[in-house]
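Q: What structure does this chain adopt?
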Amino acid sequence: MEETKGEMKKEIEKICKRCKQSYTASSNTSASCRFHPSFFVCRRHDDQKRYYELRPDDPPYAAKFYDCCGAEDPEALGCITSFHVSYDDD
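A:
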């Protein structure tokens, strides 16, 4: 926060379009944002040899994972860290 003429000026918070977290410009570092640069997909892994637990409505041999790192949990922490990117930055 900056003090201007005896008043406190609040920093504007932005929302990161990659990780959906709120941040301020002063708190944005090269390790602030953690995200997956690719999509969560449903298909066979490249090796096709791993066993996957399927739900009754899943197609045969389907696997669900992040295409970038192979993490199979949709809530897995991102595999890349970088600066936050605001929707206003486009």
